[in-house]
User: Fold this.
Amino acid sequence: MSRAFVKEQDGVEELPDRLISEHPNLVTAEGLAQIEAQLARADAAHASAQAAGDRGEMAATARELRYWSARLASAELVPPPADNAQVQFGAKVTIEREDGRKQTYRIVGEDEADPAKGSISYVSPLASALVGKSVGDTVKVAGSEAEIIAIG
Assistant:
């Protein structure tokens, strides 16, 4: 790695910071708790690396501490939706694709998104297409159409 990409501090090389999204850091209550838990894990891992004198691990955990500290500082807690008339941040929405498959997703913040577990980031193309729509509306999804059949 080029020396231009690291700086030395107290004999430990710092890794470049993780990229932080340009989008507002909207979070659900669960997302905020996840960020806090990640920060606590990073802090514990950093303390462990310091105690072991592992300079490489200290650099890696310091990087994680910087990232999660920044994400916590910029977090904007969004209360749960007051109604289910339209798809909005924090809502659970069920769509039915043209082939009959039904899928349910919860629209959440970037750090808590996990499509395999049914949560998608509010900045994802699918969430962007869904937000503001109502039951019965159709949206373009991966080159085909899907109908919103439930909002919860």
